[in-house]
């Protein structure tokens, strides 16, 4: 059966930086989670960060810039936390490869998991187009990344691999 890597926060795990638990954002995600199609994973926790933790953003770049060593991730206090995010991204990639996972649904906006936008690095809640570190690393290794807003697109992508009753 197909497996999908998913941000653990999207299935109700207490892994967010602020310690909040978020209910699954989509009933399909909830159903897939119950059916064990989803493999929950939090790169920030896997990289060694705790809950709660100070907010962090990518300064002067995006996830690909961080992977290339051209940008860093700092927390709201100005501490460089790049190494945690790189370790978590690598751990996500290793898990995906070990389980032969070809796609992921990741939390948009996150400096790890953002797939269409991240925050601009000023802690002013301003968004900018870009990918987080984990999203960039997964895509660099041919793993398709979707945001939680793209569930229907994911369902179409996997429709040949799982039955219609599982999709909806």
Specify the helix fraction band: 25-40%
Oligomer: single chain
Q: Can you write the helix and strand succession as a string? A: EHEHEHEHEEEHEHH
Average pLDDT level: 92
Q: Indicate the radius of gyration in whole angstroms.
A: 15 Å
The major β-sheet equals: 4 strands, parallel
Shape summary: globular
Termini distance?
16 Å
> In DSSP terms, counting alpha (H) and pi (I) runs of 4 or more, how many helices?
7
- Strand coverage percent: 15-25%
Structural class: alpha/beta
- Lateral arrangement of strands in the main beta sheet: 2-1-5-8
Low-confidence stretches: 163-168
Query: How many beta-strand elements?
Result: 8
Structure description:
This protein has helices spanning 27-34, 43-46, 63-67, 82-98, 133-140, 151-158, 164-167, and strands at residues 4-7, 38-41, 56-59, 72-75, 103-106, 117-119, 127-129, 144-147. Mean pLDDT is 92; it is low at 163-168. The longest helix is centred in the middle third of the chain and has 17 residues, at 82-98. The strands form three sheets. The protein has a four-stranded parallel β-sheet, sandwiched between helices. Helix 4 (82-98) packs parallel to helix 5 (133-140). The chain is α/β, with parallel strands linked by helices and 168 residues long.
